[in-house]
Amino acid sequence: MAKANESATIDKSDNSIGKSPAESSVLVVGAGGIGCELLKSLALCRFRSIGVIDLDTIEVSNLNRQFLFRREHVGQPKATVACDSIRRLCPSINIEPFHGDVITDPRFDISFYKRYDLVINALDNVQARQHVNRMCLLCSKPLIDSGSTGYNGQATLILKGRTQCYDCIEKPKQQRTYAVCTIRNTPSQPIHCIVWAKFLYNQLFGDNDDPNNEDVTPDADDPENGTNGQEAVSSTTENGHHRISTRDWIQAEMEEFQPVRIFNKLFFDDINYLTTMKNLWEKRRQPIPIQYEQARQIQEKTLNGQSDHEQSATPKLNDQRIQSINEYAQMFIESLNELKQRCDKQRQAASSSKEPAFLVWDKNDDADLRFVTASANLRAYIFGINLTSKFDVKSMAGNIIPAVATTNAIVAGITVLQARKVLATLPRSSNDHTLTSIKQLTNVFISTDRKTGAIIQSIQLEEPNPSCIQCSDLEQPVRVRLNMSLFTLHSLYERLIRKHLKMNKPDVIIADGSGRILVSADDDEDEEMMLKTLDQFKLINGTILLCEEEYDDETNEALLQHMKIKLMLEHTDTITDKNEYIIVDDQVIGEIKQIKQSLKRKHIEDDDDDDDNIQHLDDYQNEINIVKKTKKLSTSHDEHNNGPMHTSFVMLVDDQASA
Ligand SMILES: Nc1ncnc2c1ncn2[C@@H]1O[C@H](COP(=O)(O)OP(=O)(O)OP(=O)(O)O)[C@@H](O)[C@H]1O
Ligand SMILES: [Zn+2]
Questions:
Q1: Which pTM was predicted?
Q2: If we measure between CA atoms, which residue out of 433, 342, 411 comes closest to residue 119?
Q3: Region (Disordered) spans which residues (predicted)?
């Protein structure tokens, strides 16, 4: 029935009879829970050409639902093993694994995406989804974004310019946020202590440059304290530990690292200091500081009438049991020692490799999890809050909603049906992948919300959001190839944006939906910051920067002009010179060639050597070992009359690409 409808809507006269699965090539990004189901279903539905990207290796915890993997595969790349398993199921298939990060791996550039008819996301995080969304918009590839959360799931279509893209609607924040004062001063729930423990981990071992790396020291500026910190600041504890941030205190302590001293600062001195902020405790139970030696004597496991798991009728696994304060104190010291050693090794390794010089908390790492479990429970005990098992800490700290294998199977099945429908609308014999008819396409949601009346629902495709930063402005960005770990912010701003793109003093904004400003036109330049390399700002392969400035046109003061250039950064290791970059955009190469030819003709006619539309950049040729030509392209629009404006920028093209 569905098939009859589909073929009825396809216009055969314009050669758009659709592609069959066997004729199509599909890229699957993510070979986890949904990815495994998806690959199996695609293979069984006669898809014959598939690419699979996944960055991860197989873990024991994947085996219960990621059925393409077996115990003997643990530690091996997911993409490779998934493809091997599919080949066993379907020997004639052409399936190619790519073990790498879809965001940062330079192999996955625009030309890579162009090899496929359709892209399917089977990912588990927003950042990677946003990246694939951006890449598919840039090269006009249809994308199906599949996902599941517990019993809910979806397979949504993203078709450039015709449907909403992944970023058209702001996503609800996945992680709940908590007031910093609650976390630092007045926790009242286990989750507050868990969040504090994760902050503590980052203060001790995390990325010091990360603006989200929150302090855990008591905060005397808490408005509830009402004294602007004066009273509290004057009443110092014995050794004054609270006066400096935990990170600074730790830096000073690192030489003669003494875990018991750290324990006593966090759970005794800091808590003592908190108790001096009297206003906080007028209507709350005041926290009770404990020292390490005291903690080792406390065998308590339950608080405030919390049900004792030991006595519960249901048998518990070790990790599901609440332990005693004595055990948590010991766990704190042991995991702290372990992480300190790991952090030292990491720092050493970082000096000779690209590894970061810090640790990143991982719910699947046992020492990481033990550290947060122990710290959170010690703090909970001090504040009279119920304790939490290691098992529950893992779920709460990792924001985990358990994966349901059945939901994944349903989502994958629906996604394959969606894929077949999308391909049926693609012109068969040309390389034009513009969809011809999308009337029969819908988004599909799986929902357990009974109010909607149906578990599987087809919802009409929505129009793109005209103010979406990713898809409203479909103008192609200028692609710049450079080495992110060598190229500095200074080179980007001064050489590329100001000198070559001829912008005056623009704001440079990271167009990832965060609105993060990389360089502000209004602020004075921070020299130290400008000398940092692009990767230190967490800019990655495919990052799009929006360079924007407003200024009065000297010729007409009343007209406020608006100049905007989008840059897409493409990382390459092959560039080894810190000043070198290549601006290359195959979308405009044809146009450039045409203009060059017409200029050449003009050049011959005029015999005019001063034609400034083509110049050899002698001053750059020594530094950049690529012959470049410059060409003026008009860009941007006059905001007032929508007509083309005379703003122009210079584009550098390497000869090879334009040849
Ligand atoms: N940037 C990325 N590049 C490539 N693959 C990615 C990227 N981000 C996530 N993935 C992959 O997407 C898949 C998502 O699958 P899934 O949601 O089942 O997660 P998982 O990590 O396998 O499971 P769990 O988190 O429950 O242990 C994972 O295999 C993960 O490695
Ligand atoms: Zn959009």
A1: 0.61
A2: 433
A3: 1-20, 210-243
